[in-house]
Amino acid sequence: MFWSLLLRLVARLISVYEHFLGLKNTGIWGKKEFIKRSLNMAYENVQYGYSMIAVLVIVLLLVVYFVKAQPVALYITAFIVLAVMLNFYKLKVTVDASSVSWEMGVGLINGSIAVNDIKEVTVVESRWVTGWGIRKINNGTLYNVSGFDAVNIALHDGSVIRLGTDKPAELKQAIQTVKSR
């Protein structure tokens, strides 16, 4: 019963958050139709980290199994896992006429780079050791919630932003199209 209530609470929190962002909800784990906030938006994709959510739920279940007698430790662990889950359950990437933006989870982790700062865009496959989440890589940072496909964005200053995506060719094409304008 506790787990059922916890999962419903997580689903409800995500729904409320997305409602305030102006998203039409077609199911908490289903596809979303996003209301375009500007006419110059070239690309938008949301990738959900189902694998990351599953791993976090398994971690929580293991903690519950091994820490049954200590309710305070259980509540603290549940809070930490819930916080991590809310910050890393999805990665939203947006390309518009002037920037490439990304937002993880509920939006506390985000970033943006100007299209003019982009030197080169390539499709890459991340190695399994780079994992999910936010990672330091050679000369830059990786943002990923699921899978190994990504787009490397090399900047003029020599740094690199690598954005994980389930549609790397489309993201690369959108950035190149906006950059060529």
Question: Briefly, what is this?
Answer:
By secondary structure, the chain is α+β, with helices and mostly antiparallel strands.
Describe this structure in words.
This is DUF304 domain-containing protein. Keywords: Membrane, Transmembrane, Transmembrane helix. The chain crosses the membrane at residues 46-66, 72-89. By secondary structure, the protein is an alpha+beta fold. The protein has two domains: 2-39 and 48-88, no CATH class; 92-180, Pleckstrin-homology domain (PH domain)/Phosphotyrosine-binding domain (PTB) (PH-domain like, Roll), CATH 2.30.29.30. 37% of the residues lie in helices and 34% in strands. The protein has helices at residues 2-20, 50-66, 71-88, 168-180; strands at residues 23-24, 33-34, 41-48, 90-96, 99-104, 109-114, 118-125, 133-137, 140-144, 149-155, 160-164. The strands form three sheets. A five-stranded mixed β-sheet has the order 7-10-11-9-8, with helices on one face. It has a four-stranded antiparallel β-sheet with strand order 3-4-5-6, covered by helices on one side. A hairpin with a 4-residue loop joins strand 5 and strand 6. Helix 2 runs antiparallel to helix 3. The longest helix is centred in the N-terminal third of the chain and has 19 residues, at 2-20.
